[in-house]
Amino acid sequence: MLFGVLSLMSFQLVDSAFIGQLGILPLAAQGFTLPLQMVIIGIQVGLGIATTAVISKALGAEKLQYARQLAGLILLIGAVGVALVCVIIWFLRHVILSLLGAPESVYAVIDAYWPYWLISAWVGAMLYFFYSICRSNGNTMLPGTMMMLTSGLNLVLDPLFIFTFDLGINGAALATIVAFGIGIMIVAPKVHRHSWVSFDRHDLDVVNSVKAVGHIMGPAMISQLLPPLSSMLATKLIAGFGTAAIASWALGSRFEFFTLVSVLALTMSMPPMIGRLLGAKNFADIRSLVSIACRFILFFQTSLAIISLLVSAWLSSLMTSDHQVEEILNLHLTIIPISLGALGICMLMVSICNALGRSYTALRISALRLFAFFLPALWLGAELGGIQGLFIGAAIGNVLAGLVAWLTYRSAINQLAELESLRS
């Protein structure tokens, strides 16, 4: 899974670098697209968390047919739900752009780009749902391998569609559609061959099944949708500094996603382990496992922050051809990475709390991170220190969020251990 997520983040970073060569308007268009992309990803991840939970539980109870039926039901819910969201985004695009503070010059680029991007988002979501079904059945090798394959395809197709076919930013979305489409054509037959999905609704209580999915999906999805809401508010704030600031924020955000790849891999791989230990009432090993993971995150992210500090000027010039964007991006890559260790711990604590069955605790951590720390610190930094102050504020917000997330997790695990000791 680590290599799969790494390849996925690598292609997204290189994708942004290619778009950065097209000029400031396409890059700004990607910056205004990012919050909406996070909305769609939030929906698919929320449903993916529910998929893993309900299907693995059904398999543990040896209800094999029910697990297959749940997989089919989830695919239908995901296909229709994400398609509906994409249609709503398209028809409300000008309203959304106005709320985000987008300049008129970006509208024409968005009008041409979003039809292709929305289709690529839907295809990507469907591929993600197939990955979730694989993971639910204990197969993490196939999703990891396919992430590497589709990312490699995207890296090859991106320059071909963007530059050779002269399709510009639209070519980036078309390359993604082709790569993810090929991924579905490979994964779907394998899922069918293993009989992991059934669309037979015979003896399936659809209402109760949807409720079971929704019970987990609801808090998880809200937790996943808070970052895009925060991103929209942050984008509107950053838009006040001009188009170059938005363009650099888009590139910097991609770089952040890339550097957090090990954290993302841990958030995917640790919940099944935590779940098994929780089932065995082994709280000591849970504490030990989480502690080791947190120490690794702090060490790894600090190392990356030092590297980023040393190569920020070179990397900024590599990722964009616009001098003004390059200067702001250099600031981003110098300041923000210092705080990503704390942000990584916060992200992991959300995942761990969900695995512990404390979905509302996870939701509280997410809400506090964004609305009590990140956004207020971002705004205060911008007011006091301009664009540089904005980045410093974002870094401070991340550090505070990581600290509070750790303390909240400690409280949750202690409460669970105390409850178990009282029962026994």
From TrEMBL:
Transmembrane stretches, start-end: 32-58, 70-92, 112-134, 146-165, 171-188, 233-251, 257-275, 296-316, 328-350, 362-381, 387-409
Lipid bilayer topology: Multi-pass membrane protein
Keyword hit for ATP-binding: no
InterPro entries for the chain: MATE_fam, MdtK-like, Membrane_Transporter-Flippase
Keywords, in A-Z order: Cell membrane, Membrane, Transmembrane, Transmembrane helix, Transport
Compartmental location: Cell inner membrane
GO molecular function ontology, one term from the record: xenobiotic transmembrane transporter activity
Pfam families reported for this sequence: MatE
GO annotation, cellular component aspect: plasma membrane
NCBIfam families listed in its UniProt record: matE
Descriptive protein name: Multidrug resistance protein NorM
Naturally occurring in which organism (per UniProt): Vibrio vulnificus
